[in-house]
Amino acid sequence: MALLEIQDLRTTFRTDEGPVHAVDGVSLSVEAGRVLGVVGESGCGKSATATSVMGLLPRTATMSGSIRLDGRELVGASERELRGIRGAEIAMIFQDPMASLNPVMRIGWQLEEAARLHGRVPRAELRARAIEALATVGIPSPEERLRAYPHELSGGMRQRVMIAMALINRPRVLIADEPTTALDVTTQAQILELMRDLRREVDAAIVLITHDLGVVAEMCDEVAVMYGGRVVERAPVDELFARPQHPYTWGLLASLPGRNLAGERLHQIPGAPPSLRTPPPGCRFAPRCGHAMDVCRVDPAPALAPTGRGDAAAACHLDLATRDRLAALETGEGA
Ligand code: SF4
User: Fold this and answer.
1) Ligand 1 centre and the CA of 295: distance in Å?
2) Which pLDDT band holds residue 278 (cuts at 50, 70, 90)?
């Protein structure tokens, strides 16, 4: 059974210009010991899905659907229940470390507090656990660093402290939202290794949100591709790279440097992502899709349907044979 199971999640933000449907019927699941990659351009609903799961939405947001953590329903849970779950059973790493660090408290206090809140570490061991957590994420002289305030650390160090805080209680589900974007290559490799350790040691389920398909290839078992607040393709990672089934995924893969012929310019998907306030009818990718047909521009949008290859599914009106033929050409593999 999936450790984290999201069914038909819909999250809407109220704005002065009207409602923004940031997450529009998303279903995802991830089992213990597995890594699910969630990819897509900025504004496609990846982060809104993550903050919905964590129960960290602003008051202007409404949410419906189902989010089950090890069988327990989180949609409709009280703030008190969610506080007990957050940080202990499910934790999140944000792209911006200042989103989870308190600027006026020393990091030692913050780490100890994260461990103390969930009562899993005896009081006498809190300091030792905080030191160990900093050492685990590769922070030199961890004892001295406990006394530092967040602003006294470099960006990379702050990112590591935030990761130490997320992992201090060994959560069973970790959501990592662009965890390595701002980091150098060496630190990035270390952070990915930490996530692998968590998966190995506590059989954690990891949701890795990223726009970096190289990281996806390296880390993930399954991938969900999001566009316009919806999942448009879902597949085991090898299947997604070998036989992508959605024109948007083709565009993402074609922009990978290794897929281009030497000397060719990197491919860019023309146009911009759709407005989530007034999305186009039918397939939301139609205005940017080189294969759009009349049927693509009328409601209802194509549903996520099995491609006949294992658990893979895609939401596109093109028939499977046409998709197979075009995929190689569009991603540069057939060049
Ligand atoms: Fe393109 Fe139509 Fe498929 Fe959408 S449904 S991706 S517009 S071919």
Assistant:
1) 9
2) very high
